[in-house]
Description:
about 475 residues, alpha/beta
Amino acid sequence: MRKRVLLVSSWTNSIKVLGYYLSPPMGLYRIQHWLEKKHDVDILDPNVEDPINFLENCGFYDVIGFSPTKDNLHNDIALIHYARKLYPQTQIVLGGSEASNNYQMFLNMDIVDFIIMGEGEKALEFFLENKFNIHISPGIMFKNKSTSTFLSTDELTWVTSLDFGRLPLKEYWKRNASVTNNDPLSTNCINLYITNNCPIGCKFCSTTRPDVKVVGINPHGLVRMLEKIMIQVPDTKTIYFHDDNACGDRKNTIEWCTEAIKAGINVSYVASSRIRHFDSEMLDIMIKAGFRKLSCGIEAYSDSLLKKVRKAQRVKDIDNFILLMRDAGIPVHINVILCQPEAEIDDVKRTAEFCLRILEDKRNTVGVEPYIKAYTGSWYYDNWDLIEYTYNTVPSINGTKSEKIRIPGRFLPRDKKVHHLLVQIDEAYKTDGFFIDKRKESYLTAQLSEKLCKLALELIKGL
Length: 463
């Protein structure tokens, strides 16, 4: 039976965090694309539409699915309360990483009918069409997601090829221009995810699955998709492949880049991937295809810390990558985390100095976080004893329940000097004019990074 379904993206409800939401909720649009031949599926994106007004006027849905996030959890729960008040007969379903890893909290709050674990397309389809069969006690929960919901290469290729013309891209582009200071590679940019799964096993990550393989879009299908984008959204200037492993399959990357060159697709590309994914031959073809920047998670410039955090790279690999990019003439964006749980003060010093060296080339950018956010489902969350929690108030919407919820904030470092450094950085964020002014409105981490690294090195001298 055809059902009416509403999928709701996480509600930021604050201009200060819009820098983390530069793209439409592509995952929800993929699910809509997957389901719409059998069901009527709408998307509510609170970043571009008033969610309260929408819920009050949308009418009855058989199922409303929410995709809550840790950073916006209080707002997401408020919307769930309001949806329940307005439509008590509707089934409320949660999905996504936060719901899957933090299911016990949601069940304890008694605000949800079902929590769906697994890749959303098939998992929600199974739910809507009762394609599940449970022969176990209802009190049993499995943390691992069923591999039966994983998409194949052909399925991933098809479901990612959306009707891009109906996405609210221009609304995001207009807003993002102010957030990014009109950065040319962020202007008129479409974010794509062309792989699923990550087997690396980093200890701070809540979505890694060491027992699964990366699945990627097939090269020919990707080129057809890029051609489709340029027809449906001709103002597009950059395609950003946002996966951690976007270029992990060397053969596929070379194949689709070669085909895109022959097709004459006129657009720039940026990609996130691992530093070991590249070589000079591959980069030469990527640059000819239109690649203008590469982004990689470095995390730390210290062998001991990289080993502790389970990053599959060492300092020599980082140095080789930077040299390779320099010789190829392509700028980089790197991400690092200064005061990691197992960091020592020398790890922080080496990492901050490394970042400043990278920034000597003005084309490069660096995203520096002072600490690791505490995401449920990560190794640190399950095993680290020094977790700092915060409390947020769920706002009342027209009489719905207001309550305080405890949210894991960050993992604190065990080393006393590193912990003290983090406390000093916290204080600088509250008192230093630069950080105060920047954080009044939405900002990107990269816009604070040089100042943060210099501050850390100055503070380290006094420890």
